Amino acid sequence: MTDIFGYCDPAFTRVKDSFAENFAVRGEIGATCSVIIDGQTVVDIWGGHQDKAKTTLWSEDTLSLVFSCTKAATAICAHLLIDQGKLDLDARVIKYWPEFGAAGKDNVTVRMMLGHQSGVPALRDPVRTDGFYDFDYMTKRLAAETPFWEPGTDNGYHMISFGWTVGELIRRVSGQSLGKFFKDNIAGPLGLEFYIGLPDREFERTTKMIPYERAPDEPLSEFYAQLFGDRTSIPHLSLLNSGSHYHDKPEAWRAELGGSGGISNARSLAKMMNALVGKNTILSGARIDDMRRTAAKTDRDRTLLIPSHFGQGFMLSMDNRHISGEGNSLIIPDTAFGHVGAGGSLCIADPEMGLAYGYSMNQMGGGILLNDRGQTLIDATYECL
């Protein structure tokens, strides 16, 4: 049995038990889980190892990539500027970023950009080597790109490009890079160990991710079939037209990848989402209520190729259990919002329940959304509540 460390309130023993079960029966290697209820931490646990060979223990201060949970951090930055009156949700993007209006994107609004409706989930022409790590290069390329659909008429998950499109709005309005704005206005004041652009001094305690290994008889989903089989498809262009990007090399850790490159732990994910719950929130109640309403909902996301459901920069509940295979759903109450990260990490806020939740790990799971490990933990959390 894997030793589980940290604190768990007796009322939430089911969460700790599910966490232990993930190691015993669901292939967990190293992970951490944190739950805050009404401002009080009731679960802060970790266990396992930082490597597949199980030679280095996961410690209290281990960090890992949280992939698209970073979008929640980026979205919070944008909503902070909206609350301050510096960014208008219904203004056209060209008000702040004139160059983005090229190639038929002049009517894209800030709301569309946060809702994955702006039409630029990828780039068609090859990205130069290490282009993902050059923020200026990527924003210029996206500004010039022809949209894949008429903006505002459909949605497709902006898997990595969200970090540059929304991140550039934040930079244009605030005068700071995305990573610096997040550090000064969110991570620093809240005491988060959450980095969009990891300092070299933190490399030593950051675990690398362990790729998911598909079983030989496991069928390919339509998303992965297009990813590997159609070089013109949005799935392929989103992930593989990347200028040789690899998420675990130093250049990637240092880069301000606001759509996919944040490095953190469950404790800080939960603390960040707790800033959207209760009386002392960093955003106004009206802003929080608005941003978690449905912004885009479709039966077939242009990128994910499954039904999807988004608020303004956040994922909402997506029950796709009718689709075979793991990782097609995020099943949470309608009162909750948050974001899944590739492989299974998760951050959630539920203002009605006073809940903030974080989970991060290094063994990636299959599928696009939440796998059994993360879903079991969030289910256990609600059972305890």
**Alpha plus pi helix count:** 12
Give the strand order of the largest sheet, numbering strands 1, 2, ... along the chain: 1-3-2-10-9-8
Q: Which architecture per CATH?
A: 3-Layer(aba) Sandwich
Alpha carbon gap, first and last residue: 27 Å
The residue fraction in helices comes out at 25-40%
Structural class: alpha+beta
Morphology call: globular
Q: What is the multimeric organization of the chains shown?
A: single chain
Please tally the β strands and state the result.
Answer: 10
CATH superfamily caption: DD-peptidase/beta-lactamase superfamily
What's the number of structural domains?
1
User: How would a textbook summarize the main sheet?
Assistant: 6 strands, antiparallel
> What is the N-to-C succession of helices and strands?
EHEEEHHHHHHHHEHHEEEEEH
Features:
385 residues, alpha+beta, Beta-lactamase, 12 helices, 10 strands, 13% strand
